Amino acid sequence: MYDKDSEDKTITPLPRPDRYLLQASNNEYQALRAFLEKVSTYGELSPGCVVSSANHDIHVFYNNEKKRWVLTNHDVILERESIDDIAAEIIYAFKKKRTSDDIVNIAISVYTDKKNEKANSLHQELTQITDDAFNTILTQSPDINRTDVYGNTLLHVASMYGFTEKVTRLACRDDIHLNTINEGKFSALILAIMFGHTEVVQELLK
Predict the structure, then answer these.
(1) What is the secondary structure of 32-99 as a DSSP string?
(2) For residue range 51-71, what is the model confidence (pLDDT) as tens digits?
């Protein structure tokens, strides 16, 4: 992914993305919907999203000219008009059965053409949406250790993608299971070590 205005696509990479943590399911995807809706209002930045779990990545962007969402998942390319439809496809990409109510724990990296005042505004608004959603999970979730179909908890994904502050808040809870092993046989600590997130490692070892 490169700056669309650059003359040499091989040496002008996009600025580093901003990254956000979310949890969603078929019945609980309001935060994901609000996130996508906000992204679509900043079309002049050409924002693109890489959505990741601990096992899988997909690419999602809003085509401002066609007024359509585009999702790329390996060799599959989907186009959807509505935010609800693209949110459903994002959730399904990280599940094994479309109609199941399995949760998905995901990190979303948002790329923009340039880092400017508009990009900073988008970052602030997306941060507010995801921070509010995270606070709701902490205060209202009946099971903070709930796993997705690949055995990943919210702590797994937060640790793998370097969300230090969120890992801190999760790790200090009395009901957190720090040593849960996912399908890949990795704990949150091992993922943090593998991906070089030193501060996360320190928090998990306290």
Answers:
(1) HHHHHHHHHTTGGG--EEEEE-SS-EEEEEEETTTTEEEEEETTEEEEESSHHHHHHHHHHHT-S-TT
(2) 999 888 999 999 989 999 999
